[in-house]
Each structure stands twice: as structure tokens, then as C-alpha cells.
Write a structure and sequence with these properties.
- This protein is mainly α.
- The protein has a single domain, classed as Growth Hormone, Chain: A (Up-down Bundle), CATH 1.20.1250.
- Helices cover 78% and strands 0% of the residues.
- It contains 15 helices and no strands.
- It has helices spanning 20-51, 55-79, 85-105, 109-137, 143-172, 174-195, 211-236, 239-245, 250-262, 264-274, 279-300, 304-318, 321-332, 337-364, 371-388.
- The longest helix has 32 residues, at 20-51.
- 59% of the residues are buried.
Length: 398
């Protein structure tokens, strides 16, 4: 009698402890993804010198990457919706690996830009699927904590990924940083294949009278998300330029980014502890700290101590940002989890790419001292949106 091949066991959402293996795998994959996106930030002076382009043009390596994400997040998420979610994540990690290897071998700035665009395409689908994946690993009321734990991978990307690649690039060459990162991406792919359980895709919000209100709430959350990332990356893309102008030696930029980035873990831990209890309060506090830190950076620049202290405050707040907006967007139920993930991913990267481009314009025009004020104004605008939009950012879970 013929027998059919056994189906893989169905995953049943449970608590955070039961999903620990999968959450760790996604956090690790998020770490290498964020590091891949941001690795040029600390290496801008080295890349611009070696490839004989200006620092503002080198900064557009972040812009091109981010705009690929913004343009492709929804189309690629839609095109891959019938594929197994885990296979899509593994494919994205493989493309990250290839993108970093091409950068290592690239003879010109133009080839580096093409390789970065390839990485951006992987990023477009990776984070869109990852956000929805996390929401399926645990029960709905635990989504905030689960997303905060996975975004710790992003925080560690700031804490270790960018500073270590900066220090490595300074010591032995910027291409070596991309080579090591390619190996880390490949390792993350292997561990994700082993540790991450398969979950079903799909899932649509209920089609009821509140559908329009949920979609409006989702649009509000993603708009505020774009504004925060726009403000942050207007400044952060050029943080190495600001630190050098504040008196740090190039060799000290990596350690400085390590110190500042490590403080972002405080914000991530705060989000993990509070998002499932006081989501609105957590969001407001997060944005107040981010805006205050960036504004203080403008007020204290070019003092070395003042610049570092302000960047530390700013980093603490930003450590919570990804979890705050991902959770708020998922809980609007304005679309399926994957589409929500795509919208959060796209708007964040509109902010990242736009911030890099806006920062370049300010740097070439008004100068480095004006960059923090531009970024702070954008984050304050996002804070106003959050304060006004109580339906999109409720005080308790809905």
C-alpha cells in the first residue's frame, strides 16, 4: 500500500521560552542583516579615499541599499507569498553573502554600488518576512516581547557589527571587513536552517466594519516610523564624519561606536519589558530620548565629550525604536503579518535612504554642525504624530 511522505510538524504559537530557538535564529540573522546594511557607515572615509570619491558620494552606498528595500519590499513579499517562509529567509541570507563577496572583489565604486543594491533586494524581503515570522512564533499578547528580543540582533549589530567592522577595516583594510561579514552571513544561514521552525504563511485581517480604521492606524504607524528613521539616519550615516570633526582620531571611531552602540541594549531591554504592558508610554518615552539626544548632539558639537555623551543618550533611545514600531504595526491588524512587515520595512528604509541623502545635502551645504538639528526636527515631528494618534498608538493592547 503506497504511503505519502510525512508532513513536517505544524508549529503552534506558544510562549517566548518555547520559541527561544527560533527567536535566537532570527536575532542572529537580524544581526548580520543590519551589519550588512550599515557596514559602510564607519568605513566611509576609508571607502571614499580608496575608491577616490567624496564622503557624501560614498554615503550614497547606504542610500542605494535602502531605496532598493523601499522599492522592493512590497513587490518581493507579494511575489514570494506562496513560498515557504523559512526558505525565503534562507534565500535572503544567501544573497547577503553574495553581495558582501562582490564588494570584496569590486574594482570600482560603481561595482560596489551594484553589489549594495543586490544586498538591498535581499533586505527587502528578509525583514518583511522576519517581522511576520516572529508574530507567528508566539501568541499575540507576547508579540511585543518577541519582537523586542529579535531586534536585539539589530542592537547588537550597532554594538558589535558596525564598530568591529570599522575597527577591522581601519586595521587591515575595509574590504576585509566585508569578507568577514560574508562569512558571518553564511554562518547565520546554516544556524537558521537548523534552529528555526517552519511556520505557515498567509493570514489576513478580519473584513469587518473596523477595517478602514485599522488601515488608517497602520498608515499612521508606518508614517511615524519613516519620520523617525529619516531623522536618525540623517545624522547616523555621517556619525564617523561628526566624530572626526569633534576631535577623535580615525582609530578611535570604532571603539567610540562600540561604546555608544552598547548603550542601545538598554533601550532594547526597556522595550522588551514594557511593550506588552504600556505600549503608548514606551513609544513616547523612546522618541523623547531619541530626539533629546540628537538635539543635544547639535548643541554640544564639536566638543568631544559633549558629542559622545549626547550620542550615548540618543543610542539608548534608538535601541527601542524597531521593536516599538514593529509591534504597533502588527497590532493594528491593518493587513496580513507579511504585508505589515513589508510596510514597516519599506518605510524604515525610505527613512534610511532619505536620511543618508538628506544628510549628504546638509553636509555639502550648511555643514556638519547643521546635521543634528535637521535630524532632531524630524524625530520631533514623529513624536507629534504619536501623541496625536491615540488609536494607532493605544495605551494598552487592543
Amino acid at each position: 500500500m503506497p504511503t505519502s511522505s510525512p508532513r513536517p510538524p505544524t508549529w503552534h504559537p506558544g510562549d517566548v521560552r518555547g520559541a527561544a530557538g527560533g527567536l535566537f535564529a532570527l536575532a542572529l540573522a537580524t544581526f548580520v542583516a543590519i551589519t550588512t546594511e550599515l557596514v559602510p557607515v564607519g568605513l566611509l572615509p576609508l571607502i571614499s579615499d580608496d575608491l577616490e570619491v567624496s564622503e557624501s558620494l560614498a554615503g550614497l552606498l547606504v542610500t542605494a541599499y535602502a531605496f532598493m528595500v523601499a522599492a522592493l519590499a512590497l513587490p518581493l513579499t507579494s511575489a514570494t507569498r506562496r513560498l515557504p517562509r523559512k526558505a525565503v529567509l534562507l534565500g535572503a541570507l544567501a544573497v547577503y553573502t553574495a553581495s558582501n563577496l562582490i564588494v570584496v572583489l569590486a574594482p570600482t565604486f560603481e561595482v560596489v554600488a551594484v553589489a549594495r543594491a543586490l544586498g538591498g533586494a535581499a533586505h527587502a524581503v528578509f525583514f518583511s518576512v522576519c517581522i511576520g515570522y516572529v508574530s507567528r512564533l508566539v501568541r499575540p499578547h507576547l508579540a511585543g516581547r518577541a519582537l523586542a528580543l529579535v531586534t536585539l540582533g539589530a542592537s547588537v549589530g550597532f554594538v558589535l557589527g558596525v564598530p568591529l567592522t570599522t575597527s577591522l577595516g581601519t586595521a587591515v583594510g575595509w574590504r576585509t571587513s566585508f569578507l568577514v561579514l560574508a562569512g558571518a552571513c553564511a554562518l547565520a544561514g546554516v544556524l537558521t536552517a537548523v534552529l528555526l521552525p517552519s511556520v505557515p504563511g498567509g493570514g489576513t485581517p478580519p473584513n469587518d466594519a473596523a477595517r478602514g480604521a485599522r488601515r488608517t492606524a497602520l498608515a499612521t504607524v508606518t508614517t511615524a516610523n519613516a519620520l523617525v528613521y529619516l531623522g536618525h539616519y540623517t545624522v547616523y550615516t555621517y556619525i564617523s564624519v561628526l566624530l572626526l570633526a569633534a576631535g577623535l582620531a580615525m582609530a578611535a571611531v570604532g571603539p567610540a561606536l562600540l561604546f555608544v552602540g552598547a548603550l542601545g541594549l538598554i533601550g532594547a531591554a526597556y522595550a522588551a519589558a514594557r511593550l506588552d504592558v504600556r505600549p503608548r508610554q514606551t513609544t513616547v518615552v523612546t522618541l523623547v530620548v531619541v530626539a533629546g539626544g540628537i538635539l543635544a548632539l547639535g548643541l554640544t558639537f564639536p566638543s568631544t565629550v559633549g558629542t559622545l555623551a549626547a550620542a550615548a543618550v540618543w543610542s539608548i533611545g534608538f535601541g527601542a525604536v524597531a521593536a516599538v514600531f514593529q509591534t504597533a504595526a502588527i497590532r493594528t491588524r491593518g493587513a496580513s503579518p507579511d504585508v505589515v512587515g513589508a510596510l514597516v520595512n519599506a518605510t524604515a528604509n525610505i527613512g534610511i535612504g532619505g536620511g543618508a541623502a538628506l544628510g549628504a545635502l546638509v553636509l555639502d551645504g550648511a555643514g556638519a554642525a547643521a546635521i543634528p538639528y535637521t535630524g532632531a526636527a524630524l524625530v520631533v515631528t514623529a513624536l507629534v504624530v504619536v501623541v496625536v494618534a491615540r488609536r494607532a498608538f493605544p495605551s494598552t493592547q487592543v
